[in-house]
């Protein structure tokens, strides 16, 4: 199988750009056809590129209509837990209204050069556990 090499940090940068510009179409070329979108605040996962893009477009449209809920998507890195010492991975730290009002941590999984999973975490791992970079890609 001939796969493009999309690196974790590149994928996180693309996702952060999409949020900072409120433009889900920036993600489209990098999403796997059967991408899974999950959130710790949702009861079920969403599967499929079209469904995930529609969901993100709706969320971003809502944000555009509420300037007081401006999103700040910052590049970050996960911190390994002592009991699960995986290597740190690039992630996105989401804040609303103010860069220091961190609300969520976005985890990405890649397969064959495409983003095949986007997960929004509010509790585990807690967003405060990420190393923040101060980079907000546009």
Describe the structure concisely for a colleague.
The chain has two helices and seven strands, in the order αββαβββββ. It has helices spanning 8-21, 49-64; strands at 31-39, 46-47, 71-77, 90-96, 102-111, 114-121, 131-132.
Description:
By secondary structure, this protein is α+β, with helices and mostly antiparallel strands. The chain contains two helices and seven strands. It has a seven-stranded mixed β-sheet, with helices on one face. β5 (102-111) and β6 form a beta hairpin. The termini are far apart.
Task: Give a topology summary.
Elements: H1 8-21, E1 31-39, E2 46-47, H2 49-64, E3 71-77, E4 90-96, E5 102-111, E6 114-121, E7 131-132
Parallel strand pairs: 1-6
Antiparallel strand pairs: 1-2, 3-4, 3-7, 4-5, 5-6
Q: Report mean pLDDT, rounded to a whole number.
A: 92
Assign the structural class, choosing from mainly alpha, mainly beta, alpha/beta, alpha+beta, or little secondary structure.
alpha+beta
The biggest beta sheet, please?
7 strands, mixed
- The count of DSSP E runs of length 2 or more, i.e. the number of strands, is 7
Oligomeric state: single chain
């Amino acid at each position: 199988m001939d796969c493009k090499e999309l690196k974790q940090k590149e994928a996180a940068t693309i996702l952060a750009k999409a949020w900072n510009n409120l433009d889900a179409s920036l993600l489209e070329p990098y999403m796997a056809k059967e991408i899974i979108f999950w959130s710790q605040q949702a009861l079920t996962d969403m599967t499929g590129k079209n469904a995930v893009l529609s969901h993100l477009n709706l969320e971003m449209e809502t944000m555009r209509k509420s300037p007081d809920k401006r999103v700040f998507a910052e590049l970050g890195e996960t911190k390994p837990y002592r009991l699960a010492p995986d290597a740190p991975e690039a992630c996105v730290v989401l804040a609303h209204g103010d860069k220091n009002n961190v609300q969520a941590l976005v985890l990405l999984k890649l397969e064959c050069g495409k983003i095949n999973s986007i997960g929004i975490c509010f509790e585990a791992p807690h967003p405060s556990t990420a190393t923040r970079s101060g980079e907000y890609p546009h």
